[in-house]
Amino acid sequence: MEARGLSRPARRRLGLDGARVLLYHGVGKSKGADPRYTVTRNQLAGHLEQIGRGGHRVLPLSAAWSAPADEARAPAVALTFDDGGASDYEQVFPILSERGLPGEFFVNPGTMGRRGYLSWDQAREMARGGMRFQSHAYDHVYLTPLPAPSLQRQLGDSKRRIEDELGRPVEFLAAPYGDLSRRVRQAALAAGYRAICTSWSWPARAGARSVDRVAVYASTTAEDLARLLRGDVVPYLRRAGRSALLYPVKRAVLHLRPAWRSDQAVEGPA
Ligand SMILES: [Zn+2]
Question: What's the pTM?
């Protein structure tokens, strides 16, 4: 049973009419990247073709997020890339530039310029080429266990640093590992972010402070992506069910085994 069979009000109630904010990690071969979250260059190009075939507009995140759902048009798509890996410059930037598409890059100032990561010069070049940069916290750490001063550094200093380096406003935060709580969300809004991106795979709600994103994996085929873009309910429910099952377990592990915090994901990747 596909969501196409659902009535428009039902689709609206389920939130399937909102923008599709896609969440990518690495693209192409890169050292140290988790292969489960790394798509190939061809795969990304195929996804972009699929987006075009579906009649979706690719918009900057702020535009896709704030646009109210318009039943007369295919939902807007935003392309987000987490972690600031070198492949953002080497692989993604050329693919998007060739097609004149905007991309949204969530970076950690703490890793910029390190081996395998973007440099500030590369980020500036990308920004001049129409790409946008947002915060993935200062360092790639879990945010929920942090005391207030460290949390403020992760949220506020990362925003300021990216804005200082690139000369453009930073409006969105994506928490590393999708590790969010009410306290982290409130601190982020207090630090001046307009909204916080999650790793909960669902279409985004226009103007909501939490921006759900649809994670794209190595295993996501063009056909899988087509179903997610169309808003078929089954793949979304399948992903939600998996997250709902895994999330409490991972969170419990996180709090019982603090030593794992540095390398275990709470809510999947991000
Ligand atoms: Zn991340």
Answer: 0.88
